[in-house]
Every structure is written in structure tokens, then in C-alpha cells.
């Protein structure tokens, strides 16, 4: 299998599946509980990981062949902005990538956002409200990513709401138990078509084919 195509196949599901699992495990809680739990389970690990990254980068002075030269200024920017891929803001300010731990911040924000959407849909008590909110957020995530990479990977957070919703619906209707060969085959075919159509990078909310990128993860 061609390496480029293999990369497309992997990127189509490797990160989104974790948001699907979060949606599957979702249980409505008080917003304060979600924030508190996220702080201890996601924000603190992010801070500790960032400190570890700084220590490793500091090792440049002793083992220059190991890592890139440490820059305190760049480190502060990458930690506080918290994105997975380097970017340049509209004001020409360059923001270095924090790396894989962007996911922790995105998950923290994603949990809060889906909780808010769920509570709002319950309060409005109108069928289709949650679906409408999810669609609007996904569109906003893809649209804003064309102009700016928001802090804490918020573009990705918005797009990820479709995966939260998919996981939640899988559990609500017990689709794991009802899964069959036909559904799996459809998902596999869409997965390959999506990979053939281009890349999907959730961390930057970029997809060559946005509809397929979302549908593949939802169905799989």
C-alpha cells in the first residue's frame, strides 16, 4: 500500500475515534463537575507534559543532537496557545506547535462544549435541537480554520462535536450490539473512499472532503 495513501487512511480515524469514545461514555453532569474533572484529568496532565517537554528541550545545551534548541519565548507561546501544528496568525505572529498534547486541551474544551449543547437541547425540549447545534458547530470549525487556527485547537473542538454526537447516539441506540456486516462494509468502503479523496487533519480542522471525513468516523 502506498505510504501517502496509508497516511490518509490512518489520519481519517486515528484521533476522531477518541472523541467518538468520549461521546459513547458521555453522561450528563453539572457543568462544574465536567470542568473540575477535566481540570484534574486533562489540564494538569497537559501542564506536567509541557514542563517535561521544556526539560527535554533544555537538554539541548548538554546533548545538542537530541532536540531543538530551547526558546523560552517560543515555549510560552506554544504552551498557552496549545495547537498541534505550527501556524502564523493574521497579525504575522508565529505560533509554534505544542505537539501531540494539543489533544488534552481539545478534549477538555470538547467535553464542556458537548455538555453545554446537550443541556441547551434538553432545555429547549425540541426534537432536532442537538443535531442542529452540532451541525452549526462543525460548519463553524471548518470555516474558521480557513482563516485562523484558534487557541486550544478550538477549530478542532468544534468539528469534534460531530464525533461526540456519533458516540452518544451509538450508545443511546445500542448500535454496538446491533452492528452487522452490512454496516461495517459500508463504513469500510466510505473509509477507503475518504482516504482516496484526500487527507483529514482534525487538529487543524482541515479535510479535502469534509463531508466524507465526518461521515466515515460516524459510521465506523
Question: Can you describe this structure?
Answer:
By secondary structure, the protein is mostly helical. Helix content is 66%, strand content 4%. The chain contains 10 helices and 4 strands. Strand 1 and strand 2 form a beta hairpin. The longest helix has 28 residues.
Topology (elements, then pairings):
Blueprint: H1 3-11, H2 16-24, H3 31-58, H4 72-81, E1 87-88, E2 94-95, H5 102-124, H6 129-145, H7 154-172, H8 175-178, H9 181-197, E3 200-201, E4 206-207, H10 210-219
How would you concisely characterize the structure shown here?
The protein is mostly helical and 220 residues long. 66% of the residues lie in helices and 4% in strands.
* Beta content: under 5%
Distance linking N and C termini: 21 Å
Described by strand count, sense and barrel closure, the largest sheet is: 2 strands, antiparallel
What is the overall shape? globular
